[in-house]
Amino acid sequence: MTPARIAILIAFAGVLVAVAAAARPAPAGPEERVERIVAELRCPVCQGLSVADSPSVSAREMRDLVVQRVAEGRTDEAIREEFRRSYGDWVFLAPPTQGAGTLMWLLPIALVAAGAGLAWGRARSRAEAAEHDPAPADVQALRARVAREEAADL
Amino acid sequence: MTTPNVAASRRFTLTGRTANLLVIAVLVGLIVVLALGFRRDPRDIRTAVVGKEAPAFRLERLEGTGTVALEELRGKVVVVNFFASWCVPCREEHPALVRAWERYRTSDVVLVGILFQDSVESGRDFVRRLGGTWPTVVDDRGRTALGFGVFGPPETFFIGRDGVIEGRHIGPIDEDTLVRGIETLRRKPS
What we know:
Chain A is mostly helical. In chain A, 70% of the residues lie in helices and 0% in strands.
């Protein structure tokens, strides 16, 4: 394995570890939970702003509701579900990880994987072509053809 | 000995024709997605609450004392109108609401105004100046509006006798739309 390939593999492993670390649920306090949920929610009167980033009255009311629900002991998923019931999946800035929304997540990954596979396959075929000498029979046949063509030219 | 290696390498080689087909397939997919997206009316916001039971509420009346609860209106056709005094489209649609109320006030139709994102004083002033004797209540913390999935005033919801939201109108409503929505629900067997 060439050093370049080793470097690529190490970089890929690093990305996987980072993604796994980011996806791991960390225990959070009430304030952190509120901030996490309002950052996911879309402000209904804004253009592409989260409830966390919007100063609008609607966003403030949504934040107040999240604070109240967290204080009442509701789970994050129950709070999200309450907003989903009223506004649908639209209320979440990120597409859902279920149903048709799964495509939004899987398609880029599939495209990157397909591209990586293609690049790897091409690199491998070129490397193999360079590494292996032609078969003696092929060389002999090629020499005979060259000789024939040269004789024909003469 | 070289033949197997050549064959193995070909497994990972995409021919020019296959690569072209792949690119075309991706482009066609993108065009279809974009075409479907552009065909949608941006004002046609998909709503999660239509077809579902309306969120229950019991809210203080804007004028006088007492409350209005949605549950107590079960069996009637209910039109819920979210409004605010600072909202210009709310002022524009108000005459249509007055006319619809005059038409249906003695029938099995109830119009409920819900003031939200506004002060009680401003709401009272709005109703006194523009008229309207239908029950109007105050959603002081916006919880009812959030339950209905309201984006902003004005918004009008048509609720059937069974308490299910059958229709929703975002923005100022006119008398024809009001009458059409109400009559559809009145004709619907309970």
